[in-house]
User: What shape does this take?
Amino acid sequence: MKKRVRSDRIELFAAIVVIGILCVIAIPRFLLVHNDALSSSVQLLNANLKASVDQVYAKAVIHGLEKSTSISGREPIMLEGIEITYGTPITGAAGIGKMPITADSFQLNTFENFSYFTFKASNNGEEGGVPSRCFVKYQPRQSANVSRSYSLSYNDDCSE
Assistant: This one.
């Protein structure tokens, strides 16, 4: 009987050691998968925004609005419910915020000349440990005379 109890303790100890080793290996791999998923979300949002803005610009060219901008005090230039400047959506909710993209986990942060899409924040400034350095930045076309249509960049370094 004593041999059996001793054998059970050794088996239990061995099982705990094996579980510990698996945890040491599995947890870092899970974190890498989590960061990869966040990075992929940022890259997907960037691609969706690029396609949507290109589509709006193409429609603006068709309607002859690629060289038009709203001047302070005048009616804004609208194209299918989206306010545009030089054929691209303006920053903010009236422009880039109305783009038909699926970005439920992102929020729009707008400044004077550009907008950021970041992960929606909770009370502590991060959601599920998502760093605020994961973002997509959009800047509309600034002039009718520039060859570059708009600026769209992203940072997908979502590591903690």
User: Anything to note?
Assistant: Confidence is low (pLDDT under 50) at residues 122-130. The radius of gyration is 25 Å.
